[in-house]
Automatic annotation (TrEMBL):
Its main location: membrane. It comes from Zonotrichia albicollis. It is a multi-pass membrane protein. GO terms for biological process: phospholipid translocation. Belongs to the CDC50/LEM3 family. Pfam families: CDC50. This is Cell cycle control protein. It is found in: Apical cell membrane; Cytoplasmic vesicle, Secretory vesicle membrane; Golgi apparatus; Membrane.
Amino acid sequence: HSQSFTLTIDYTGTEPSSPCNKCLNVSWDSTPPCTCTINFTLEHAFESNVFMYYGLSNFYQNHRRYVKSRDDSQLNGDNSSLLNPSKECEPYRTNEDKPIAPCGAIANSMFNDTLELYRIDNDTRTPITLIKKGIAWWTDKNVKFRNPTGDGNNLTALFQGTTKPVNWPKPVYMLDSEPDNNGFINEDFIVWMRTAALPTFRKLYRLIERKNNFQPTLQAGKYSLDIAYNYPVHSFDGRKRMILSTISWMGGKNPFLGIAYITVGSICFFLGVVLLFIHHKYGNRNTSADIPN
C-alpha cells in the first residue's frame, strides 16, 4: 500500500468566512498571539509516517541581499563573530549598540506560527504527537550550526552581550527547553536558514511517527488545526498553508526537476541541430590561416 496522500490547508485568512480572518493584520509581537482553529476531515487514512510542513507563497527567500544577510561563522559558534557580526548582516547587525545573535535578514524573518493537530472523536479532542527533532539536515545540525563555547553549558551566559533579532519575541537561547535543540542548533531555526529557491515553498515543520503496524498514523475522520498566528504575510500578499503528506517508497512528488531537465535538454538538442545546419550550409570553407587584407 504505497499510495501517497497530501492534504493542504490554507490558513492565511483573507476570506471573511475564514476562522483566521480576525488574525489577518497581526504584528510580530502581538501578545497574547492571535489564535484560530480550522476543522478539516481526512477522507483517507494516512498509513505511513506523516510529514507536516508549513508553506509560504509570494515570499522571496531567494533575493540576493536577503540570501547574503547572515554570518555563517557566527552561526558556527565562533565567539569573535558572535560579538562582532559580519557587515553583510546590516541593517540587522546591531540593535541599541548590541550585536544581534543570530544577525541578518534571514534569521530576523524566521517563521514563528505554532501549529497543533487534534483528532476529534465524539467531541473529544485528542492531541496528535508532533515530533520536532529530526527535521533538519544532519550536517547542518551537527557541523554547520554550533552554539558559542565557553565555561559551563549555560546558553544564557554564552549569549551574554548580544541581543535578539528585532522581530523575535524571545532570544535565541529560549527557542526550546531542551538543550540539544536550543540556540543556534534549534532545528526549526536551521530549517528556516536553509533558504528556498522559489517564492512558493514549503518547509518541514514536524514529523508524525507511526505508532504500530495495526493502526494508521492518522486515521480517516475529523481533525482540527490550532494555529497561534504570529507571522504576518498579508502586507505583501503572501499566503500561508499547512501541509500533511505521506511519502511513497519512491519519495515525494516533485516533477519540477524532471520537467526542467527535459525542457533544457530539448532546447539544447534543437539548438544543436540548428547550429549544425547553419555550420554546414554557411560555414567558411576557406581553411587557410591567412588573414585577407
